[in-house]
């Protein structure tokens, strides 16, 4: 290690990263990053994305699965641009990511040479919590420390530090000071008492749980509150994480992502208590009352933006777990209140109608051979709800998807989740359920899975189309949209091109045996299974009722 006299910005920064446990760096190198990556220390790992969208989302999955911030290094403006869709998703996922990007030499920036990141602090906005380029090279380690402290605090999220390539060899101010910050906010005691009193006074309260509960480690606290109140639990629409076992008798279903249908479903409840979620994450516009007649709403979130954007109700800022524990102590129990009938019926296995299988038939087949402890990462827009019918979430940390709907996030995120399992030594396999269209957006992630021999099984339902957009076209009455069919995609060749063993499975038996083989294999596998083309209603009639 360098002595204090010759200490460089590079030395001080790597020392800081080591102390912050940011020793896994996701990225894609260019000449503006090479001065940072030179003499790469042997106790660090570099995970190559091949494209920055992949690098960002791998880091996102890794950070979520380890529960710690992760570091991504992007190539100046072009690399930031490529990563931007997934930076947006990381922002909505509230994942703490420290993003560093190379920048041209300070001496030359004035004349706009190639690779200049013009307006470097504007480019990643509004989807970073902070964007900064140090005013002098010596401030690089402090900027990274500040970025780390900001990324971690609620609501967590990505931060961006642009670093000119000539900064790394400059003399440092000294070793960087390592700081710690808190990552939870406790509820205002007076306001949570008011919320508890309103819940205790409600005749027929309902709980809507969101992703913040799992991120806060609050599954048990959520169950305890629901059981004390004897109140039904819905999952917030478009939740990126789970919050309760889907087989718990009080669990109902995930709410649909539309105004009218949500009110329909919540009809009859006088108090809707949303914990750890926005109110609400909508998708198609289906008009209707925001709340059913006579209902009031309470929201608890750690995000002031989500508290601000709610159309109705009263909000309280808090970490979800701390709020659940406090409410549990403060509310009155309702043991005599009749338990709600569960909507959560075991999905029946459909009769075979020939080939190709429907998505439901294929998922029923997979559900039969499910290893209980696997992690699922999902991006299959038109049929993920069917998958969940046969693969209910049972434990925390076993289900990930995106908070944004921006395709290209989950395939690389699954690789990050699998890398985390490898580093943590859990042995838990990762099942990546990905649409044939969606796989194309960050297809390079297959390569990292192969290079690091990660236990990821890609399940690719192949309908050769953008099925969800056909469903949207019916709802929005927009016929004859071009380019919704992609029958020419060759998933097996793509996978093999990136070094991943790939098989096609058509029948129930083929799917099941390919899956069992994949579970036993060393490294990733792709299983492509043709599914029947179906254009279903975007909001299923069962949830409109
Ligand atoms: C970055 C991005 N580009 C485009 C879209 C629009 N989009 C939403 S779903 C979808 C099709 C997904 O196709 P596929 O993965 O095959 O799933 P399927 O609808 O067939 O189930 C598209 C293109 C998007 N959500 N994100
Ligand atoms: Mg498709």
Q: What bound compounds does this protein have?
A: thiamine diphosphate, magnesium ion
Number of strands: 18
What is the percent of helical residues?
25-40%
Oligomer kind: single chain
Global mean pLDDT: 95
Radius of gyration: 24 Å
Structural class determined from secondary elements: alpha/beta
Major sheet summary line: 6 strands, parallel
Low-confidence stretches: none
Question: Which strand order does the major sheet show?
Answer: 2-1-3-4-6-5
Short description:
By secondary structure, the protein is an alpha/beta fold.
Layout of strands and helices, then pairs:
Layout: H1 9-19, E1 24-27, H2 34-37, E2 45-48, H3 52-66, E3 70-74, H4 76-93, E4 97-103, E5 131-132, H5 140-152, E6 159-164, H6 189-201, E7 205-209, H7 211-215, H8 219-229, E8 233-235, E9 251-254, H9 259-265, E10 271-275, E11 296-301, H10 304-309, E12 314-317, H11 320-330, H12 359-368, E13 375-379, H13 384-390, E14 399-400, H14 410-424, E15 430-434, H15 445-451, E16 456-462, H16 467-476, H17 491-497, E17 501-504, H18 508-520, E18 525-530, H19 541-544
Parallel strand pairs: 1-2, 1-3, 3-4, 4-6, 5-6, 7-8, 7-10, 8-9, 10-11, 11-12, 13-14, 13-15, 15-16, 16-18, 17-18
Bound molecules: thiamine diphosphate and magnesium ion.
């Amino acid at each position: 290690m360098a002595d204090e006299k010759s200490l460089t910005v590079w030395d001080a920064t790597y020392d800081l990263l080591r102390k912050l446990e940011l020793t896994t760096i996701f990225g894609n190198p260019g000449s503006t990053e090479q001065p940072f990556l030179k003499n790469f220390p042997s106790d660090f790992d570099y995970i190559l994305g091949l494209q920055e969208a992949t690098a960002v989302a791998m880091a996102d999955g890794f950070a979520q699965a380890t529960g710690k911030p992760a570091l991504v290094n992007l190539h100046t403006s072009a690399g930031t641009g490529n990563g931007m869709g997934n930076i947006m998703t990381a922002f909505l996922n509230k994942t703490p990511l420290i993003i560093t990007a190379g920048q041209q030499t300070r001496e030359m920036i004035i004349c706009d040479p190639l690779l200049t990141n013009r307006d470097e602090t504007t480019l990643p906005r509004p989807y970073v919590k902070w964007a900064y380029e140090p005013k002098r090279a010596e401030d690089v380690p402090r900027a990274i420390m500040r970025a780390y402290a900001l990324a971690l605090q609620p609501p967590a999220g990505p931060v961006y530090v642009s670093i000119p390539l000539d900064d790394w060899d400059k003399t440092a101010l000294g070793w960087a000071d390592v700081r710690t910050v808190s990552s939870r906010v406790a509820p205002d005691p007076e306001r949570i008492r008011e919320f508890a009193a309103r819940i205790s006074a409600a005749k027929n309260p309902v709980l809507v749980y969101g992703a913040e509960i799992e991120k806060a480690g609050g599954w048990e606290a959520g169950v305890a509150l629901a059981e004390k109140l004897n109140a039904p639990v819905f999952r917030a629409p478009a939740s990126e994480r789970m919050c309760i076992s889907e087989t718990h008798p009080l669990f109902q279903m995930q709410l649909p992502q539309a105004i009218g249908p949500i009110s329909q479903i919540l009809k009859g409840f006088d108090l809707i208590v949303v914990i750890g979620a926005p109110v609400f994450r909508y998708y198609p516009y289906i008009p209707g009352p925001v709340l059913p007649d006579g209902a009031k709403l309470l929201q608890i979130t750690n995000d002031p933006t989500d508290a601000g954007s709610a159309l109705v109700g009263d909000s309280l800022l808090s970490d979800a777990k701390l709020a659940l524990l406090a409410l549990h102590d403060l509310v009155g129990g309702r043991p005599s209140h009749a338990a709600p009938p569960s909507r959560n019926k075991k999905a029946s296995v459909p009769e075979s109608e020939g080939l190709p299988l429907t998505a439901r038939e294929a998922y029923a087949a997979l559900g039969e051979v499910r290893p209980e402890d696997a992690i699922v990462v999902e991006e299959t827009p038109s049929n993920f709800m069917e998958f969940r019918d046969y693969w209910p979430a049972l434990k925390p940390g076993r289900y990930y998807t995106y908070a944004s709907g921006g395709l290209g996030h989950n395939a690389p995120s699954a690789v990050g989740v699998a890398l985390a399992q490898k580093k943590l030594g859990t042995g838990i396999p990762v099942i990546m359920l990905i649409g044939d269209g969606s796989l194309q957006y960050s297809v390079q992630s297959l390569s990292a899975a192969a290079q690091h021999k990660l236990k990821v099984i890609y399940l690719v339902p192949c309908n050769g189309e953008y099925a969800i957009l056909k469903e949207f076209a019916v709802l929005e009455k927009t016929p004859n949209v071009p380019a919704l069919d992609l029958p020419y995609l060759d998933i097996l060749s793509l996978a093999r091109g990136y070094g991943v063993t790939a098989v096609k499975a058509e029948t129930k038996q083929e799917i099941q045996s390919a899956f069992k083989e994949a579970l036993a294999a060393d490294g990733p596998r792709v299983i492509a299974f043709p599914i029947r083309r179906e254009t279903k209603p975007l909001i299923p009639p069962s949830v409109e009722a």
